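[scheduler] slot 2 assigned
[scheduler] job type: sequence-to-structure, two independent chains
[scheduler] chain ordering preserved from manifest
[runner] begin chain α
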Amino acid sequence: MELSKQYAAELEKRVGGQQRHGNWYFTLEQIKQLPGIIKSFDQIDDLAISPYHITENSIMEAYWCILSIKVVDEVQDKFDVLLSETGKRSLKGLEHHYIEQWDYTYYEILKGDVKGFIDSVSRYIRYMEKREPLLREEYDEPNQLDQGFYYEIW
């Protein structure tokens, strides 16, 4: 089993999670347990955490807020990677909120750097604590009682 799936299984065992639409999802409050789980495993590998707005009838991914951590032999400058991804030559060509978002959601971590990995996950969680209320304003549907943001680990 992939290490990220092992993290998710351990998180589900500790806090429950919710199975919806055939996958396991966790609230941000539950995701806060993840750094401790990673520390207890003392192993790292590529990780992604995708936020979804889920209602009784729909599921919508907030794809621009996906956490992506790549475990690598050599770390590239994250902003050089952003420029490469966008085809831009300078950060001046990008809006500030895109740069900020990239800074909180994209990481390259050296193999074996468990502390750096945990710090990246924790930083993403703090970022999403600020972003999630804004996302709810955008995504929440009137007259829907059972709705909210949930996160999938993969």
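[runner] end chain α
[runner] begin chain β
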Amino acid sequence: MLHELIHRLTGHELQAEDVQHIVAVVDAAPSQHRYAWATEVKDARLAALLEQLTDYLAIATQLDELHEQLCDWIELLPPFPPKNADVAPRYFRWLQDEIRHTPGRGGQVLLQIHRPWTTDWCTTVVHRADAAQIVALSSQQGWRFHAPATA
């Protein structure tokens, strides 16, 4: 289950040994001192997973910062739209539409990763065909990966 989630989150780019290493780190997280802050086992495991997948995540406190990171991945993404700067649902609706119309990215979608220990934005861009399965697999782990609210 966790193997499959990692494969889908990384666009099936990682080798089996790399995925196995991440699974081992995630499984060991609850007993590691560095995750002692976590009040629940699932939070320690999620924190460990996200630390292992930093190359696949955009994390920021503000939407404009998040957008800058996403522009690093999606070269043809337009500049941050100032009219949407203060309204997350409008920004995410605009962003999903832009991703859908970006050459080579039409088969992708943005997912938000809920981290209960912070209010920072945490997102990833995944293959549209994998999105529903990623949501389901993360839910089985007790985690919440979802399409950002657009209304």
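[runner] end chain β
[qc] chain β: The radius of gyration is 16 Å.
[scheduler] slot 2 released
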